[in-house]
Design a protein that fits this description.
With 179 residues, the protein is mainly alpha-helical. 69% of the residues lie in helices and 6% in strands. It contains ten helices and three strands. A three-stranded antiparallel beta sheet has the order 1-3-2. β2 and β3 form a beta hairpin. It starts with a helix and ends with a helix. 29% of the residues are buried.
Length: 179
């Protein structure tokens, strides 16, 4: 069950090596464990573990205590960051671990990357997520810089999406910068 839980936290698909490292179990032993499911729940092929049904993965996550899921997300973020994962992946795991302060820098970097790539839908979703985390961090000079960067990036993303709230984001950024 621990292998399935960790795989579910890593997503619909993950690498066998990452899953092995996350649960501290040798790959061969992990393959033997996964083979018990005979491909009905998860499939392991070509060094990748894939859930056969997204709904099963979601149901599995709902049946796990929230603290355990958060702990696994934090461990996954640490592991994936050390392995050079993209900021969006690391930031999302930290976000799901409810590490409000820790997720901000990778999510802000991911937001900047998504704006440059022209991905409107992803940028607007990231804005909502980052905004929620910013409500939970202490008021420090470092977090004020993060908030300012967020407002500027939000304004850019909203402007690209032709949203009227872009002006408000830029005004809030100007107000924050002048304090």
């Amino acid at each position: 069950r621990h292998a399935l839980t960790a795989a579910a936290v890593l997503g619909d698909r993950c690498s066998l090596a990452e899953l092995s490292a996350l649960i501290l179990e040798p790959e061969m032993s992990l393959l033997e464990t996964l083979s018990l499911f005979r491909g009905r729940i998860v499939r392991s092929q070509g060094g990748e573990v894939t859930f056969r049904h997204r709904d099963f993965r979601k149901a599995l996550l709902r049946g796990i205590p929230p603290e355990e899921v958060q702990s696994l997300h934090a461990a996954a973020a640490s592991l994936l960051e050390a392995r050079g994962a993209r900021p969006l992946v690391v930031g999302m795991h930290l976000s799901q671990a409810l590490d409000h302060g820790g997720c901000l820098d990778p999510l802000l970097e991911a937001l900047d990357n998504r704006i440059k790539a022209g991905s409107t839908r992803t940028t607007l979703r990231l804005i909502g997520r980052i905004e929620a985390h910013l409500k939970h961090v202490q008021s420090t000079p470092a977090n004020a810089k993060r908030r300012l960067r967020f407002l500027l990036l939000s304004g850019q993303a909203q402007q690209s999406a032709n949203l009227n709230v872009a002006t408000r984001s830029f005004q809030n950024a100007k107000r924050l910068a002048s304090t």
